[in-house]
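Recall from the previous chapter that SMILES is a line notation for molecules. Here it describes glutathione.
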Amino acid sequence: MVRIYGDCLSGNCYKLKLVLELLGTPHVWKFTTWKNGGTHTDAFRAINPAGKVPVLETSKGEMIPESGAALYYLARDSHLWPQREVDRAQVLRWMFFEQYSHEPNIAVSHSILTGIYSLDNAEERLAALKPEGEEALATMEQHLASNDWLVAGAPTIADIALYPYTSKAAVAGFELEAYPAVVAWLGRVERLLGFISSDEAIAQTTPE
Ligand SMILES: N[C@@H](CCC(=O)N[C@@H](CS)C(=O)NCC(=O)O)C(=O)O
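With both inputs in hand, we obtain:
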């Protein structure tokens, strides 16, 4: 059985819980969080030298850090990883977009505004992140205005990778009303069989 090290307060960890639930994959969740220094211990750095969650441990004990790599591993034999090579390339395109253009702006704004990160220059940082976060949402809006899903007309791990922090964009200080196609897409993801919300994922994986 696969094991996940993570804390679903992080959207990167929630992505893995979401794909596991959508696919009905049996798993063990090993709650590991940065909040108590758990990602910076020697024991955890032996699992992921980068000192970050999530990490997926395969049933053979191999460690896969990075949410995108773990999503691929979990979904590689499922309908969430398309058959055509060109569609696979498009899935990777949106997953790289998520990590480079979306998450660094929207997730970081969310973490600042919800107190996950405390910074001395929070206002300055938020103002700097805003234009690129808006640009990322506008990029999604343009694509989703004429496509129900990011790739090949069906849900894939690209949608799973982009759902968590897009769904938190309002809390991160972005006006989602300006992106109606993105809002409609969020609803489509939420209606998938097996969908689990971020709050439910946190409740199921965080010890009392
Ligand atoms: N690119 C990585 C990012 C992972 C990441 O930044 N994880 C954060 C939580 S969202 C973390 O573990 N931070 C701990 C730390 O920096 O001390 C992924 O997609 O998995």
